[in-house]
Amino acid sequence: LARALEAEGFRVTRRTTGPAPDAATRDAAVAAARRAHTVVVATYGLDTDPGQRALLTALVATGVPVVAVALRNPYDAAHLPDGVRALLAAYGWSDVEVRAAARVLTGRAQPHGRLPVPVTRADAPERTLYAVGRGLSYG
After folding, report:
1. What crossing angle do the helices spanning 50-61 and 23-33 adopt, rounded to 10°?
2. pTM over 0.85
3. What is the DSSP pairing of strand 39-43 with strand 128-130?
4. Which of 36, 43, 77, 105 shows a CA-CA span of 20 to 30 A to 3?
């Protein structure tokens, strides 16, 4: 995702944290985030690793705007901490999906997808967070 944002002309400070960041990795990412204008985080399976959720919570606590890009599926939305400013569901991590996500993030492409599945709350699965058909477009 960092390379795709760079290709769109943005200056990027890249921090690779992996799907299960430990405390030292999280601390380094938070230190870098404090110097950023905006933080873009690629997520992958937030339901399976508390380290990713802890990282997002710490990044939000910096006060720097945080945007998440769910690379696997939209279910990461159910596990985002309060304060994440936006979520983009990319539905994959291939080059074409990541480049498309970067183009949406930079305003060079419009989002136009709709959820094909409901996303329920992680803490209350009987409650719908986002219904089938939910989506965003600028047009």
Report:
1. 30
2. yes
3. unpaired
4. 77
Place of tokens 């870098």: 32
The residue among 86, 87, 89, 84 whose CA lies nearest residue 73 is 89
Domain residue ranges of the chain, discontinuous segments joined by +: 2-130
Contact 46, 52 (CB under 8 A): yes
Mean pLDDT by 10 residues, the chain (139 residues): 96 93 96 97 92 96 98 93 95 95 95 91 94 81
Rounded Cα distance between 80 and 130, Å, is 13
Hunting for tokens 């110097």 — which residue is that? 35
Question: Do the beta carbons of residue 98 and residue 76 sit within 8 Å?
Answer: no
Q: Is the dihedral of CA 82, 84, 88, 93 positive or negative?
A: negative
